[in-house]
Design brief:
There is one protein chain. The chain is mainly alpha-helical. It is built from 8 helices and no strands. Helix 1 runs antiparallel to helix 2, helix 1 packs antiparallel against helix 8 and helix 2 runs parallel beside helix 8. The chain starts with a helix and ends with a helix.
Length: 231
């Protein structure tokens, strides 16, 4: 495929992603849950398709394949989280299953990073530790009360912080557009899930928070997808 065609298609997918996400937020606010699930799925399929486009031109298959797996698991996790609204009796099951899909996706992202470049530890450790401690501080200030979910959510946040640290350590060890985009995606992902946990288990539940959750999340996944096309 010619690069001009590829990037035209990639741009079209981003536009569709933005439009679908915008409409999703509208129907979500009106609690039209089934429409919300459909629109969320369309949005997720857009970033997976965008990743498939960039993966097709990525020369490093050992990087592209786990990143694609992470994007697909992100789509699955997003849909599972959405199912907790039309099926409130299975809220914890949907939340746990969605979180597990995202967690496995982050393991895939870590595999891609470790294949690409062993991270610079003097950058990875402080960045990852700072991400974890700031997350704990933010959620404490938001009075997060997750009950039995507290421990698994903390472990998940630790995994995200490890991904953040490793991505920034890799970018510091070998600066490149690919790794810098990936590091930006990791930071956006951690930001998104901090707001998500505060929204679900904290003392504030505003429409602005919901927009911030999804805006940073989709931006993160598009950064991961784009990273495969700038090697």
């Amino acid at each position: 495929m010619k690069p001009s065609i590829l990037w035209t298609l990639f741009t079209i997918l981003i536009v569709i992603c933005i439009l679908a996400a915008h409409h999703f937020l509208g129907v979500s606010r009106r609690q039209e849950h089934r429409k919300a699930i459909l629109l969320k799925g369309i949005t997720g399929l857009c970033f997976v398709a965008a990743g498939a486009l960039t993966a097709s031109v990525c020369p490093d298959r050992h990087f592209a394949l786990p990143v694609m797996a992470g994007l697909i698991l992100g789509l699955a996790g997003d849909e599972l989280l959405a199912l907790r609204f039309p099926y409130p009796a299975k809220h914890d099951l949907c939340f746990t299953a969605g979180g597990a899909a995202f967690a496995i996706g982050h393991v895939m992202y870590l595999l891609a990073l470790f294949h690409c470049q062993f991270p610079l530890l003097r950058a990875s450790i402080p960045v990852g530790l700072a991400g974890f401690l700031l997350s704990l501080l933010y959620l404490k200030r938001r009075n997060m009360q997750a009950g039995t979910m507290q421990i698994p959510l903390t472990i998940y946040m630790l995994l995200l912080s490890v991904t953040l640290g490793v991505s920034w350590g890799a970018a510091a060890g070998q600066p490149s557009p690919q790794l810098l985009l990936f590091a930006a995606g990791a930071l956006l992902f951690l930001t998104s899930d901090n707001i998500l946990f505060a929204f679900c288990f904290g003392d504030r539940h505003t429409a602005g928070m919901n927009r911030a959750i999804h805006g940073t999340y989709y931006a993160a996944q598009l950064c991961f997808a784009l990273s495969m096309g700038v090697m």
